[in-house]
Structure formats: C-alpha cells, structure tokens
Amino acid sequence: MGNRDDVECWLTDMDGVLVHENAALPGAAELIQQWTDEGTPFLVLTNNSIFTPRDLSARLRASGLDVPEERIWTSALATADFCRSQMPGGSAFVIGEAGMTTALHEAGFIMTESNPDYVVVGETRNYSFEAITKAVRLIRGGARFIVTNPDATGPSAEGVLPATGAIAAMIETATGKKPYVVGKPNPMMFRSAMNRIGAHSENTAMIGDRMDTDIMAGIEAGLHTILVMTGISDQAEIDRYPFRPNETLSGVHELVRAQPVESEL
Fold first, then answer.
1. Which phi and psi (to 5°) does residue 12 adopt?
2. Most exposed residue of 129, 140, 210, 248, measured as fewest CB within 10 angstroms of its CB?
C-alpha cells in the first residue's frame, strides 16, 4: 500500500519510535493525542514479553505518554493468543516473567512442569540453568517449543544483554527442535494485533525503527510501512536489505498534523 491517505488504523513500535530510554520522543505525545481525539484505532507493539500491558502503560505514562493498557500489544499477548487458538485450555511450562505468565493465565492456560503441551520461552532477567534443563527435557519429551521473540540481545544502561533468542538457541541446540517464534518479524504478531482492533491490512500502517523486524514483518503482512530514524536505523542499515519501507521519516513528529489556528473574533 503506497498511500498514507488510505490509512485508517495504526500499529506502532514502542522503543525507538515513541520512547528512547524512558523519555518520549518528539511528536509521540501529540501523535497519540491526535489518534485518540479522532477515534483512530491504534496499538503500540513491543517484542518485549517481560511486562504486562498495565506495567507498560504506567511506564509510558512516566515518560509523558498516555497510552491505555488496552492499546498495548506485546509478544506475550500474541504468544498467548496463538497458543489458545491452537490448543484452548492447554498447559505450559514458562521461562519468563509476569508479562508472559499473566497473558497465558488470562488465555485460560495452566502452568505446569509435568507433561505440558507447550514450553514457552520469553524475556527474563533471571534465566536459571535448572529451568533451561527442565525446558530441554520437556521438549525432548514431546512438548511444543514456542518462543515469544527472536531478539538475540537487548539493551541496558550498561550495554547489551543476552535476550530471548540467545536462550532459545541454547535450548534448540540441546533438543534439536526449532521453536516457533511468534513475535516480530513473524507477521503473525501484526495479524493478531489487527484482529484485536478490527483492522484490515489494506488500511493499516506500521511505524517502526528496525528494517529486520518491523519493516520486514509489515511488508509481509501487507501493511503501509513507515521507517523512522529515531531508533537504530541509519542509511547504511537501510541499504543492507533488498526491500524498502513505503516511507522513511526522521521521526513520528512528521505524522502530527498542524492544528488549525483559532481565528480571533
């Protein structure tokens, strides 16, 4: 889809697009206000599965962005949605935090270490060798291997941290089983998000800061794709890929329409 005028629903990444290191980026608050005032359906997406939407809503509020929790779609929610669609009322062994376990509980799943239907690996700061060993044995015993997102590293104030993809690689090597990865760049994440707000690909846009996840998944899901340069991408990064977004903008402030000036009587 080449024309922004046809866009009626919006999906946007969070880090590098709306916020950077817990500070709102220029234009982010105004853009969310614009969508809210006009009744435009939108969702804020994140591959991070640590936090619940309520936690993320509070964090965004502290950054100066008013995003209600029902407007946040995480890889944990998308993963729980996928598991429920595949096996309603199933069971799972989870390596992850509250964002993942809460999403699965709300999807009607039981958490168990004994013969689960799924082993679900999400983001956590507390990986234990014992939990990884348990996951390996359960997968070798027949549990299906699901991963929330493929990111091999994540950012922190001290530098990069090993993330979900790195832990999943260890389990994959030990089991010989490839996981099914629900989060970006799997377009499944966008499809479940669009279902959540009743959107269709023909009239939905995706704003992201990464070519390898946001833009690739957006193109594969048939969305109007907008790359912003406030995150990790620069021209050299764009040139590495054989595909292009529909638009490249310096930041989300370019999507904020000027307010009409009230004429004084």
1. -135, 140
2. 129
Which residues are tagged catalytic? 13, 15
Beta bridge partners of 105: none
Q: How many whole angstroms separate alpha carbon 60 and alpha carbon 18? A: 9
Cα–Cα separations (whole angstroms), residue 89 to 111, 157, 203, 219, 230: 11, 39, 34, 33, 41
Nearest CA among 181, 157, 185 for reference residue 167: 181
Mean pLDDT of the chain: 93
Question: Is the pLDDT at 235 greater than 60, yes or no?
Answer: yes
Contact of 161 with 155, CB cutoff 8 Å: yes
Q: 41 CB contacts (<8 Å, ≥6 apart)?
A: 8, 9, 10, 197, 198, 199
Token pair recorded at residue 224? 């109007």
Identify the burial level of 220 via C-beta atoms within 10 angstroms of its C-beta, where 0-12 means exposed, 13-18 middle and 19 or more buried. Answer: middle
